[in-house]
From TrEMBL, chain A:
One of its GO terms (molecular function) is branched-chain amino acid transmembrane transporter activity. Its main location: membrane. The chain crosses the membrane at residues 28-49, 69-90, 102-120, 135-158, 170-192, 204-229, 241-261, 267-288, 295-315, 321-340, 352-369, 410-430, 459-478, 498-523, 535-554. This is Branched-chain amino acid ABC transporter permease.
UniProtKB/TrEMBL annotation, chain B:
It comes from the Bacteria. This is Branched chain amino acid ABC transporter substrate-binding protein. Residues 45-395 form the Leucine-binding protein domain. InterPro entries: Leu-bd, Peripla_BP_I. Pfam families: Peripla_BP_6. Belongs to the leucine-binding protein family. The keyword Protease does not apply. Coiled coil: none annotated.
From TrEMBL, chain C:
The chain crosses the membrane at residues 12-36, 43-63, 69-91, 155-175, 204-227, 239-267, 279-296. It is a multi-pass membrane protein. Keywords: Amino-acid transport, Cell inner membrane, Cell membrane, Membrane, Transmembrane, Transmembrane helix, Transport. Pfam families: BPD_transp_2. It comes from the Bacteria. One of its GO terms (cellular component) is plasma membrane. InterPro entries: ABC_transp_permease (IPR001851), BCAA_transport_permease (IPR052157). This is Branched-chain amino acid ABC transporter permease.
Length: 579, 410, 310
């Protein structure tokens, strides 16, 4: 989970310091009224009748909440957001207008998601207004409330983002971070499990998930608006090593939370594969500035090498090496291919290079499809790759430690978390090394870099080599986890997805690629009911993100200025606290 | 940010739908769970499906989804499974192995899921099989053709069944390819055959087995070429085989390529018949350029001769699905009924629990069903015993059956 | 063997001239705003579906069956729809990013490409699989006698090649001679200076997208009429080839785009015939040639100097 920025452009001119008189008082009343309406909306019924697929969750159908403490789900979220809006409105809090604006937008988004969903499922606006003698205006009231709050906040003038510079003793800050990251773990788990696993038992899983996202987004935006998030990020930055260790531990604790199911372990393992690969790509694209459009081929090469050395019956080689050795060999082979693919960089630059990499990617897919050298299984793929096992336990089994039974696939999860951690470590060290600085110099201006004495050729090839090595590592994992390696897992669209993960998360940053990969995998999993439109939304999302936030969600501090639109008023500071 | 964007994008799509629906409701009197008058006291059991519901292969996948849904709805109306309401849950595999694995894990971690219909692609089945096998969930595919899925790594020399809970009703390449070769060489008297495929599991396997049998029967394979599965222009391949004077072309692949390929063959002066497998048996083959005299093999007896098939087609149309049932609809309907009938047998004796999963697999193994596509039964490997195949030929605007026969490996 | 060789050459030239026509759009857009407009291949595809829609839903069968009536109408429909989509993409997706770092618009272009392809798949009736495309020219095949046999070329293929080359030649003249063409060249060289000279760069850029889109739309309709089937993937595949052609010929050069297109067409057809691996590897050969050319002549056949951008 991370901050969700409100997309509203900060168009309102800063008017702090000016007397506003009646207008300001009106805006204050509007804010309070908005909060009240949101709470009222949460208490009103939302659907006029039981929808055909089953009753809408959180007792939305024709139920007044006489017991306000019994609110659950999205109604609880709305009530909390509304109460927060009221509280902040009547108290003098720094960054008040920004906070209320964020809360208002959260309320709007939450009520829109639920209202629209009921409307569409119910076959028309009658479902959320009045129909058949019953009335249910919860959605409308809450929506108006949110709009009021946001309008009241903007109308009262938006002050600059507050900066907080509290300092605490180191042990207090450590404790704070511990609690913070613990909460983060719970939020991640809540996001993953919100709405349940969906399917027939729970037809509204997608809506519940979106609603949760909207509410959580509003809450995070409010936190950010209060300046707390920035401050927390600064605290985490002060205790960098501690934060990283705690985050790693928290990531390893995920199987103990509600998300500790076999399903989420599998999804998380796949996210990890793509995250590790995306970090590798981040070296090539984010640091060295060399656009690679065929990157997934290295994942494929690693996977095919691992498949051939796994003892799978379909592989031509038919030997079985221990998994750690297989990983190393996969990484080395992929790295060598990376150097080969990177070698044209000596002569080809910029977009031409992008096309060369695209060409390599296509050559790889075609060759794999045609079973080149008998190594890829061709159209039949290489199936039944044995599971990784250690100490007699296959990694896809569930394990019991004492009284705790961990879900199946948890060992794969642990393995991929450690793998991603290693990859992150490599990336982080490289980035701040002499080599990393050379890459960044080449990215900024290759000729100037050369003039400064950087041997650009070998260094560029090194970027491809190291990036491909990381992808190859992930590929070896991928082969065993998926149990089959087929050419059609490595098509151009996968390369685009990887690139999108890097860009979406934020180029050149460590958490960025992981975060981007998580979003690109979790969203389609949670929204399987919209599968028809998956790619359409993916394409549109790329366009919209580039339009409004080309620097990604977690922008690199150095890079921020470069990718941010020139007109951006307040480039948000780095938020380094994501797993 | 992107989440918010996704919310906005979704909202935009929903809002679009809203404009179309105006201010009304679709309130139905029953409101909520269907089930009617059946006894559903023991709860809900879920039949899952894994198929490509998005992307390029979604036409086939959505047809499968609808057909399975139809079978489940009918079972609920007829109270086929005593004490249980059946539910149907289709998951998208995006036609890739790792997403199929996720879908399989999602289904298999739900204790109510009793069986899975699917997948479409053989490569996705390869990742689904071990996951479902781990939970003893029965899987029946209407479409997988790769012989190794049931026969192990050495299908012809040393067949070994890798997954006892996996069944399929699609005939493997080992049946359909040779059957086509026998017809083409022995009955139609073609001696110089060009073999083309699309490089996918289904097409490449089919073409390979066809070529093997045709060579064995004394024909000459004059060319062995590949086209891209998404190509529209086949002039290169055609110019290459033209001087070799083939008297027939065998194409391993599906109708979107086969139709235009046939038309372009004729356009280049090669007025020779094109033959394919069940993947080209579709009226669209002809509208895309399939010519009278083009041939195809299909599994089972012709639909018109089976009353159950016409009943399926009528029911499917009555159900008002947005998509056509397409190539695998009929078989999907059958395999869904295979699972349902086996479940009915198993659930008759008491509540369904994990201990009954093996019983369910055994019940599927002993299936004997008169399905919409003919008789369904399984051999010791989980393959269909229905060796009945029909040769079709294009007449007018669609395929018409020429002859029905039983495959014998000679 | 001679008829086979000549047939493959003919196939290569027909495909190549189409690739060249699409490549014009890439090369013009890249020349002016240095954007790899990945969505351009999809514009070509949208043009084909636009033409098909006009033929199926707009025209009464009596008109659609007369090729001399159907052809111009389909061409105009395809060109207009493709041009509109291209201009809309420029206006709403690319223009806001004009001053952004160069990766941003490239990602946007990938997004537009995916979205356009999916939009057609989801919203055009039955577009999930290949659709038949009616004949819009004299049907049949011209059999050219050569020693040892004949070389067959469809009349529609000849039309496709001739129209493509004529349009490219026309574009060359337009860019060389007309006032607008001069404005385009000026904008390509230096947008700011062009602005000082009284040229409205926005207008020029819109015009570039418009022309490129219309040419691609014409190509889509002619290609559909030549092969009598279209699918939603034809844009991506031919788009990659066309971009390759544009790079081969030297980005920014109209002549280069056409020569590059013909080279790609010939490599595909002759490579599938004579090179090891045959038709299974014909795509691979195209990309191998691309890599080799770029490594040894990075500016392409007609490119002037290597553009220094990273």
């Amino acid at each position: 989970m991370t901050t969700v920025q409100s997309p509203v452009p900060a168009s309102a001119a800063p008017v702090s310091g000016r007397a506003r008189g009646a207008g300001a008082r009106g805006a204050a009343w509007l804010r309070v009224a908005g909060g009240l309406l949101a709470v009222l909306g949460a208490l009103l019924p939302w659907a006029t009748f039981v929808l055909n697929e089953g009753p809408y969750p959180e007792k939305a159908t024709l139920q007044f909440f006489v017991a306000p403490l019994g609110l659950t789900g999205f109604r609880l979220h709305l009530a909390l957001l509304g109460l927060a809006a009221i509280l902040v409105s009547v108290r003098a809090v720094r960054g008040r207008a920004r906070i209320v604006r964020a809360l208002g937008w959260g309320i709007v988004a939450t009520s829109l998601v639920n209202g629209l969903y009921i409307t569409v499922e119910g076959g028309g606006l009658g479902a959320i207004t009045a129909s058949g003698g019953s009335a249910a205006f919860g959605a409308v009231v809450a929506l108006i409330g949110g709009a009021f709050a946001a309008a009241g906040a903007v109308g009262g003038g938006i002050e600059p983002l507050p900066v907080r510079e509290w300092r605490m003793p180191w042990w207090a800050e450590w404790l704070l971070l511990l609690v913070l990251f613990g909460l983060l773990l719970l939020v991640v788990s809540a996001v993953l499990t919100s709405g349940g696993q969906g399917g027939v038992v729970n037809p509204y899983a997608g809506a519940v998930f979106l609603s949760f996202l909207a509410a959580a987004g509003g809450a995070f935006a409010a936190l950010h608006a209060s300046g707390l998030l920035t401050w927390l990020a600064a605290v985490a930055e002060r205790h960098r090593v501690f934060s990283i260790v705690v985050l790693l531990v928290m990531a390893l604790l995920l199987p103990l939370t509600g998300a500790g199911t076999e399903y989420w372990m599998t999804v998380a393992a796949n996210i990890g594969v793509y995250a590790a690969t995306a970090i590798g790509l981040n070296i090539v694209v984010g640091l060295a500035g060399l656009l690679d459009l065929g990157y997934v081929a290295f994942l494929g090469i690693g996977a095919f090498v691992a498949a051939n050395l796994s003892g799978a019956a379909a592989s031509e080689i038919g030997i079985r090496l221990p998994f750690p050795l297989v990983m190393i060999i996969s990484a080395v082979v992929a790295g060598l291919f990376g150097a080969v693919v990177g070698s044209p960089t000596l002569r080809v630059r910029g977009d031409y290079l992008a096309i060369v990499t695209l060409a390599f990617g296509e050559i790889f897919v075609r060759s794999a499809q045609n079973n080149i050298g008998g190594l890829t299984g061709g159209a039949n793929a290489i199936p039944n790759i044995p599971q990784v096992s250690a100490f007699g336990t296959a990694f896809n089994e569930s394990i019991a430690i004492g009284a705790v039974t961990l879900p199946a696939g948890v060992l794969y999860y642990v393995l991929i978390v450690l793998l991603v951690a290693v990859v992150m470590l490599v990336f982080g060290n490289l980035k701040n090394s002499r080599l990393g600085r050379a890459w960044i110099a080449i990215r900024e201006d290759e000729d100037a870099a050369r003039a400064m004495g950087i041997r650009t050729g070998p260094i560029k090839i090194l970027a491809f080599l190291i990036g491909a090595t990381l992808a190859g590592l992930a590929g070896a994992f991928f082969a065993h986890k998926t149990a089959v390696v087929a050419y059609d897992s490595f098509r151009f669209l996968e390369s685009v997805t990887l690139l999108a993960a890097v860009i979406l998360g934020g180029m050149g940053t460590i958490p960025g690629a992981v975060f981007g990969a998580s979003i690109l995998f979790v969203l389609p999993e949670k929204l399987r009911e919209f599968a028809d439109y998956r790619l359409l939304l993916f394409g549109l999302a790329l366009v919209v993100i580039m339009r409004f936030r080309p620097q990604g969600i977690i922008p690199d501090r150095h890079r921020r200025t470069e990718l941010a639109p020139v007109t951006a008023q307040d480039p948000p500071p780095a938020k380094g606290a994501e797993a | 940010m992107s989440r918010k964007r996704a919310v906005v994008a979704t909202a935009a799509v929903l809002a679009g739908a809203l404009v179309l629906t105006a201010c009304g409701t679709n309130r139905s009197e029953t409101g909520g769970t269907a089930g009617g008058s059946c006894d559903t006291s023991k709860g809900t059991l879920v039949i899952g499906m894994i198929a490509p519901l998005s992307g390029g292969l979604s036409a086939l996948g959505l047809g499968m989804r609808n057909s399975a849904e139809l079978a489940v709805d009918q079972a609920n109306q007829k109270c086929t499974v005593p004490g249980y309401r059946l539910a149907f849950q289709a998951e998208d595999d995006q036609a890739t192995a790792q997403i199929a694995g996720q879908a399989a894990t999602k289904l298999s971690s739900d204790p109510n899921v009793v069986g899975v219909v699917g997948t479409l692609n053989s490569s996705t089945s390869q990742s689904v099989q071990p996951i479902l096998a781990g939970k003893k969930i029965v899987q029946v595919s209407p479409a997988n053709t790769n012989p190794t899925l049931t026969l192990g790594e050495a299908p012809t020399t040393d067949p070994k069944r890798p997954f006892p809970g996996y069944f399929r009703v699609a005939t493997t390449d080992l049946v359909q390819g040779p059957f086509a070769a026998q017809y083409m060489v022995q009955k139609a008297g073609k001696k110089n055959i060009a073999v083309i495929d699309d490089g996918k599991t289904y097409g490449a396997g089919l073409a390979e087995q066809f070529a093997k049998e045709a060579t064995r029967l004394g024909a000459t394979i004059v060319a062995r070429e590949k086209v891209g599965e998404k190509d529209t222009d086949f002039s290169g391949v055609i110019a290459k085989i033209r001087p070799l004077n083939p008297d027939a072309v065998y194409y391993g692949g599906e109708y979107p390529v086969a139709g235009p390929l046939s038309a372009q063959l004729a356009g280049a002066g090669l007025a020779i018949p094109l033959m394919g497998g069940d993947g080209i048996v579709d009226a669209d083959f002809v509208s895309l350029g399939g010519r009278p005299g083009d041939l195809a093999t299909n599994v089972g007896a012709p639909a018109e001769s089976l009353p159950s098939a016409t009943a399926f087609i009528a029911d499917y149309e009555a159900a008002g699905f947005a998509e056509e049932f397409s190539a695998y609809g009929v078989l999907t309907y059958d395999v869904t009924n295979v699972i349902i009938n086996a479940l009915a047998k198993v659930a008759d004796g008491g509540a369904f629990d994990d201990a009954k999963r093996q019983e369910l697999i055994d019940a599927v193994q002993q299936t004997s069903l008169d399905g919409a596509n003919g008789k369904v039964a399984f051999d010791q490997y989980g393959d269909t015993t229905n060796m009945l195949l029909t040769i079709y030929s294009v007449e007018g605007s669609d395929f018409a059956p020429v002859e029905t026969g039983t495959f014998r490996s000679s | 063997m001679l008829p086979t060789l000549l047939s493959q050459v003919a196939n290569g030239l027909v495909l190549g001239s189409l690739i060249g026509l699409i490549a014009l759009g890439y090369t013009m857009v890249y020349g002016i705003i240095q954007l790899i407009n990945f969505a351009h291949g999809e514009i070509f595809m949208v043009g084909a579906y636009g033409g098909l829609a006009a033929l199926t839903y707009l025209l009464p069968a009596a008109i659609a069956n007369q090729w001399y009536l159907a052809l111009p109408i389909a061409l105009v429909a395809g060109a207009v729809i493709a041009a509109l989509v291209a201009v809309a993409a420029e206006r709403f997706a690319y223009r806001p990013l004009r001053d952004a770092p160069r990766l941003a618009p490239l990602i946007t272009a990938l997004g537009v490409s995916v979205a356009l392809q999916e939009a057609v798949r989801v919203f055009y009736p039955d577009a999930t699989a290949a659709l038949p495309f009616p004949s819009i020219f004299i049907e049949g095949t011209l059999e050219i006698p050569v020693p040892g046999g004949t070389v067959p070329i469809k009349y529609a293929g000849i039309l496709l090649a001739l129209v493509s080359l004529a349009l490219a030649a026309g574009l060359q003249v337009f860019v060389d001679r007309s006032r607008t063409g001069r404005a385009m060249r000026a904008t390509a060289q230096d947008r700011d200076i062009a602005r000082l000279m009284g040229i409205d760069p926005d207008r020029v850029i819109v015009l570039t997208f418009l022309i490129g889109g219309a040419l691609a739309g014409v190509g889509g309709v002619l290609y559909g009429g030549y092969l009598n089937n279209i699918n939603i993937d034809m844009g991506f595949q031919n788009g990659i080839f066309a971009f390759t052609a544009a790079v081969l010929g030297g980005i920014g050069s109209i002549r280069g785009a056409v020569v590059g297109g013909l080279a790609i067409g010939l490599v595909k057809s002759l490579g599938g015939q004579y090179l090891p691996g045959g038709t299974a590897y014909d795509y691979v050969w195209i990309f191998v040639v691309l890599i080799v050319v770029l490594v040894f002549r990075p500016q392409g056949f007609f490119g002037e100097t290597e553009r220094v951008r990273a």
